[in-house]
Each structure stands twice: as structure tokens, then as C-alpha cells.
Design goal:
Blueprint: H1 2-13, H2 40-43, H3 53-64, E1 72-74, H4 80-92, E2 98-101, H5 112-123, H6 128-141, E3 147-151, H7 153-159, H8 161-171, E4 175-178, H9 183-186, H10 189-192
Parallel strand pairs: 1-2, 2-3, 3-4
Helix pairs in contact: 1-3, 6-8, 7-8
């Protein structure tokens, strides 16, 4: 699932179309997907629909002739404060996009290292709301580096898909990977959530 999401992102950055991924609409009420999320496209003065941090970042890397670097960190392992420092350190040494893992009790699509990281974060009580706060704090200092959340459907469903979409947008999340939505549901969920 993660490899497919990365292939889709790479296809979009090359100007190709990836199945199930739409382009931004001209309407200010855009579907929740990789484009238009986060505070960037409004706060930076760009017109709605003209900014997609993930696509722009990969386009910059392509133009420079170098691959993009997108490291993964489980939020809350070993602590939220440490995650913040690790994330900032990754950006300072050249990370182009940060993938933040949302801790989950049954991370079936992840290997043992990420599973143990999730267990440690959950043992400290870290949840989806904490991860969104972590992103919001980062956005106060850095509006340029895209943040992608990687997680599972249960925390999103527990929060409510529309509430999650609103909170993720307000926090400054640029993209979301939900690895365990069945394909038939994944194609419905993004179109059903509209950004205000």
C-alpha cells in the first residue's frame, strides 16, 4: 500500500495521472486529497487550487535532477518532544517531505520495527489528536515542508472522517495515507469530505 502511494505521488510529480487521484478543482470547496490541504495554499497568498506542497516539492527535485527524500517517523516514539526534534532534524539535513506515522494498536501493514514504535507511542497515550497538534506546532515554524500522515482507518473513523479532514487541514497536513481502507471505500472517502 505504501509503495503504491509513493508510486502515485511520483506519477503525479511527473505529470502523469494515478488511478483514484484527482487534480484540484477550481472551487474553493475542494475534496480532501493530496492537493489543497494545509494552511499553505491560503496563508501564503496563492490562489486556492494553485498550491500542492507535495507535487511542488517533487517538481522542484525533478527540476534539480535529484530524488526527493521522504523519511518516516512514528509520532510519539520515543516521545512527542523527541518526535518534534527528530522531525526538525530531518528537515535541517535535507528531508523534502516528512511522513509521520500515526500510532495504532494493530499496524498490520508495517514491519516489526514500526510495530514496536507504535506500541511505545501508544504506551505513552499518543493518539491521532496528539499527532495533529504536533503538525500544527510544526506549521508555526515551517510552512514549506510537506507533512504526510500514514496510518490506519480505525483512528480516523473513531474521530469521524469529516472531523479528521477538518482538523488535518487546520493543522497543516499536506497528505494522508490510510493503508487499510479497501479500494472501494478509499475511492469514496476522499470525495465525500469537502474542505471549507
Amino acid at each position: 500500500h505504501i509503495r503504491m502511494a509513493r508510486r502515485r505521488a511520483a506519477a503525479r510529480s511527473r505529470g502523469g495521472a494515478a488511478s483514484g487521484v484527482g487534480s484540484l478543482q477550481d472551487s474553493p470547496r475542494q475534496a480532501f486529497r493530496s492537493g489543497g490541504q494545509g494552511p499553505g495554499y491560503r496563508r501564503r497568498g496563492w490562489e486556492a487550487g494553485s498550491w500542492n506542497g507535495i507535487d511542488a516539492t517533487f517538481a522542484e527535485q525533478r527540476a534539480a535532477g535529484r530524488p526527493g527524500l521522504m523519511p518516516y517517523v512514528t509520532a510519539g516514539d520515543p516521545s512527542l518532544a523527541a518526535t518534534s526534534s527528530i522531525r526538525d532534524g530531518l528537515v535541517s539535513v535535507g528531508a523534502d517531505v516528512i511522513e509521520l506515522g500515526v500510532p495504532f494498536s494493530d499496524p498490520m501493514a508495517d514491519g516489526p520495527v514500526v510495530q514496536r514504535a507504535s506500541e511505545r507511542a501508544l504506551a505513552q497515550g499518543v493518539g491521532l489528536g496528539d499527532v495533529l497538534k504536533l503538525v500544527a506546532q510544526f506549521r508555526k515554524r515551517n510552512t514549506r515542508t510537506p507533512i504526510v500522515l500514514m496510518g490506519y482507518a480505525n483512528p480516523v473513523e473513531a474521530m469521524g472522517v469529516a472531523t479528521f479532514a477538518d482538523r488535518a487541514r487546520d493543522a497543516g497536513v499536506d497528505g494522508v495515507i490510510i493503508v487499510d481502507y479497501p479500494p472501494e471505500e478509499a475511492s469514496v472517502v476522499p470525495g465525500s469530505v469537502i474542505l471549507a
